[in-house]
Design brief:
about 200 residues, alpha+beta, seven-stranded antiparallel sheet, three-stranded antiparallel sheet, 5 helices
C-alpha cells in the first residue's frame, strides 16, 4: 500500500469507478429529450443491438427493406413514428451532402418522402408507413452528415401513422432479430458482388 492509497486517517482509500460514483451508489437515468436532435437517453441495456460485421441495428425499431431502402422506423410513446437511415445505408452511401424533402403534409406507405444526395449517388427516401407528417428534424436537414456520424440518433421525419398495425404487418418491414440478420447478411453479400 503506497501513500496514494491512503487518506488522511491512514485508512485505505475506497476505489471509485470511472463514472465517479462510489460502489453501491445508483446512477441517475436521463430522460429522453430533444436537445440533441431527438436522440433518446437510454440506460445501459435498455435495448439490444444486433451487430453484423461492423454495422449495428438497434432492436427497438423496425427496418423497411423495399428495394434496398434501408430505412428504420421507431414508434414513439406519443403515437408518432420517427424515420431515419440505417447504418448500412449511411456507410454505403458515403458522406451525405443533401436531403430534400417533398413539400407534402402526408404520405402513403412506400411513397417518396424526398431524396438524398451522397458522395456516391442520388436516391429517393421512401416512407415505411403511411400517415401525416408531423415533424422534420431540421438539424439533420441542415447537416445530413449527422446521419453518417450517428444513423440511429439522427431521425429525419416524424409521422402520425394512419394504420400502424397494418403497415408493421407488411413483409417489407422487419422487426425480429433473425429476419434482420438474414436480410443484412444478404445485403452485405450483394454489396460485395457489386464492387
Amino acid at each position: 500500500m503506497g501513500l496514494a492509497d491512503l487518506n488522511k486517517g491512514g485508512r485505505r482509500k475506497e476505489k471509485q469507478p470511472m463514472n465517479g460514483k462510489r460502489a453501491g451508489q445508483k446512477t441517475q437515468k436521463r430522460a429522453a429529450g430533444a436537445k440533441d436532435g431527438g436522440r433518446p437517453k437510454k440506460a445501459a441495456g435498455a435495448f439490444r443491438t444486433l451487430k453484423v460485421g461492423n454495422l449495428s441495428f438497434p432492436l427497438d425499431r423496425s427496418y423497411f427493406t423495399r428495394g434496398g431502402a434501408h430505412i428504420w422506423l421507431w414508434p414513439q410513446k406519443d403515437g408518432t413514428v420517427r424515420i431515419g437511415m440505417d447504418s448500412f445505408l449511411a456507410r454505403n452511401a458515403g458522406f451525405l451532402n443533401y436531403i430534400m424533402l417533398d413539400k407534402k403534409s402526408s404520405v402513403r406507405r412506400g411513397a417518396s418522402l424526398g431524396s438524398f444526395e451522397s458522395a456516391k449517388f442520388v436516391s429517393k427516401l421512401f416512407s415505411p408507413v403511411g400517415g401525416k407528417i408531423v415533424g422534420v428534424n431540421e438539424q439533420v436537414i441542415r447537416d445530413p452528415r449527422r446521419i453518417n456520424r450517428d444513423p440511429y440518433g439522427s431521425w429525419i421525419v416524424a409521422l402520425r401513422p394512419g394504420d400502424i398495425e397494418k403497415d408493421l404487418g407488411s413483409p417489407e418491414i422487419l422487426g425480429d432479430v433473425n429476419s434482420i440478420k438474414k436480410w443484412i447478411k444478404e445485403e452485405l453479400a450483394r454489396a460485395d458482388e457489386e464492387i
